[in-house]
Protein 1
Amino acid sequence: MPLPDGLGGPGPLADPGACSAPPARRPFGRGPAVSLFSLGTMRALESADQLGAVLAAALAADINHIETAPAYGPAERFLGQVLGQLERTSPTCRAGLVITSKILPGPDLAQAKEQLGASLERLGLARLDNLAVHGLNTPEHLEWALRGPGAELLAWALGEGLVGQVGFSSHGSNDLIAAALASERFGFCSLHLHLFDRQRLPLAQAALAAGLGVLAISPADKGGRLYAPPPQLVADCSPFAPLELAYRFLLDQGISSLTLGAARAADLDWARQLARAAGPLTAEERASLELLLAAGQQRLGADWCGQCQACLPCPSAVPIPALLRLRNLAVGHGLEAFASERYNLIGRAGHWWEQLDASACQACGACLPRCPNALPIADLLADTHRRLAAAPQRRLWG
Ligand code: SF4
Ligand code: SF4
């Protein structure tokens, strides 16, 4: 395989010293143990050089788990080139890496085999450590993976030794994730687990108890763009950084590894600092987390939504807790820009995010008696829409 430009000589990956210190690792299902942080390759898409620099920083941060996917554009190809160089400059370091890639649900068996083969070829691998179904988000996806062509593909890939274990990522409902876990087909899962979004934590705990590996999907970005926190959140978390507290909260929950999509070496600064921070929360961290949540609840007052889900199902299919969580973030924690961005993606991201926003509420009142906080849900949904919906774009013609 030809070397990518800039990676042929002594470069950031030429020094194997980064791998010399004893690492912190957590069990990961039926596969090799993984670092507390995982490098996601979805943001280093400019060149193999960029990914090489990010991977060098990841190695310096004790990271041994690299996540990629065909859906991330050139990521697999760049990673294959960088892994090839690492194999030449530091085979021991390369041998210590655990590689995960994914396959989107839906193709028939022949297409799925072809897609997995193409992934392996781009990565320059004969075998993947972990293969995840990418976005097990709907009942049709689950059917594909458990009883359809996906089931045949996963069994074939395991039988042929092309993958070490299979798992899934999901943005779907809790019931769907629970059904996937109950199938006992999977060795690991990637879930949205965040300091400010804890509703999937019981599923994660159940998965860990059953011996699965659990990855948290992007706690920095999807957890509230915590790498660029608003001043109010910084003040509430002091003396800790918001991202530091968010990471430590998840590590304390026993989550196997936290995924971090880095575009540059500096994006891995917290991962480096917390590379061995696997111990329980300190008293100071606990106190800061309690103060942070109390400050948010105080600002929200009687309008605080506890995310208990008791108001569901709504006859109009309004995802009440997800919408009020965004309101909690905006009003309680100053995360208005993040909440607005997420709100305005509703209905525009297919099965990857909610389909209906707060304007779908018919004010029928059916949810009201179910809320233990006696929240005026329809009024709060209307307020959420007023706060977070983007102003309609002005037409420049007509
Ligand atoms: S009031 Fe709105 S959110 Fe509540 S059940 Fe009726 S339509 Fe759904
Ligand atoms: S029942 Fe009330 S507190 Fe619970 S998620 Fe629904 S609105 Fe929030």
Protein 2
Amino acid sequence: MGRENIDNWHVSKCAKACDGCEEKFKDKQVLHSRLFFEEGEYIRQDFCEKCEAKAAPALSVWKTIFIVPPPPEEEAVKKENVESLLRKLLAKENEEDLNAIFILMVMLERKKIFVERDIQKAEDGRKLRIYEHKKTGESFIIIDPELKLDQLEHIQEEVVLLLGGKPRNVEPELPPDSEK
Ligand SMILES: [Zn+2]
């Protein structure tokens, strides 16, 4: 299973505005998220209270809270922790980070910061897990990479490096005249 064929990656993000009336969500506004499956693709839509009543039937429906993300300057000075790293990777939407994102989410679930709300199975057999932040009420959809035990160790190592703020895949530096 290649990681490159994920076309439903964008489902993890909460919309900035209602998918019905297009009104912008306010900070801490309660909204309703719905997961649809259309033409082989998962689609997440977020609705305000009014539009939720008119929304089409969905695979999964849950309540969430819209949080205005903090300005980037503020984010940069904060010390990296498991949660801030998860948010950063989710915002970047890089498919190569999917494994790390999943590991971070599992760590946060164990710490009881997130709770799992639902699991959906995609047509290609992939699992989508819906997690809710216990304090803020935000929800995130995470693609479960269904890691094997031997992969797990490697990715956990990678995550530890990320948390320490060290760059990935650094070649060991050799002095120019060193023998090979
Ligand atoms: Zn609306």
